[in-house]
Write a structure and sequence with these properties.
The protein has 160 residues and is of the alpha+beta class. It contains 4 helices and 8 strands, in the order βαβββαβββααβ. It has a single domain, classed as 7,8-Dihydro-6-hydroxymethylpterin-pyrophosphokinase HPPK (Alpha-Beta Plaits, 2-Layer Sandwich), CATH 3.30.70.560. The strands form 2 sheets. Strands 1, 2, 3, 4, 5 and 8 form a 6-stranded antiparallel beta sheet that branches. A hairpin with a 4-residue loop joins β6 and β7. Catalyzes the transfer of pyrophosphate from adenosine triphosphate (ATP) to 6-hydroxymethyl-7,8-dihydropterin, an enzymatic step in folate biosynthesis pathway.
């Protein structure tokens, strides 16, 4: 199955946090053909009393089930000392499963496609680095969706 994940961080050297997570993903035997977007900076969603975020999107092929993949992503977060103090609060690492093939998943622990991805420039912009012509669930391509969003707060950080 081809999957897309969002990566984000705004604590404890965020760029190093993303680099470490990407290296961990590269070394994992169940993830093949890993590709990573450029990295972008953005203002936080939710509480503004926290540092700006950096974000990227990665894609890969996997035979892991959606929940096994979620468990893997959460174990990587935990290895980088992710603490869930408040909703949309600061974090060392956030790994969100955005898409898992064309599957629609509604479980207590997992909703795919990610319920907010179409609204977030910090997801769609890096997504467009990897799959600009992919058709999204709303019938628009990633590029078309990007043009519908305010991305004025996005700052290019680095190319992966």
């Amino acid at each position: 199955m081809h999957a897309y994940i969002g990566l984000g961080s705004n604590l404890e050297n965020p760029l190093a946090q993303l680099d470490r997570a990407i290296e961990t993903l590269k070394k994992h035997d169940d993830l093949k053909n890993l590709r990573v977007s450029s990295i972008y900076g953005s203002k936080p969603v939710g509480p503004q009393d926290q540092p700006d975020y950096i974000n990227a999107v990665a894609s890969f092929d996997t035979d892991l089930s959606p929940l096994a993949l979620l468990d893997l992503l959460q174990s990587i977060e935990q290895s980088q000392r992710r603490v869930r103090e408040r909703h949309w609060g600061p974090r060392t690492l956030d790994l969100d499963l955005l898409l898992y093939g064309q599957e629609r998943i509604q479980l207590p622990r997992l909703n795919v496609p990610h319920p907010f991805m179409l609204e977030r420039g910090f997801v769609i912009k890096p997504f467009s680095d990897l799959a600009p012509d992919m058709l999204l669930e709303n019938g628009k391509t990633v590029t078309e969706q990007l043009h519908q969003l305010d991305t004025s707060d996005l700052v290019f950080i680095k190319e992966e």
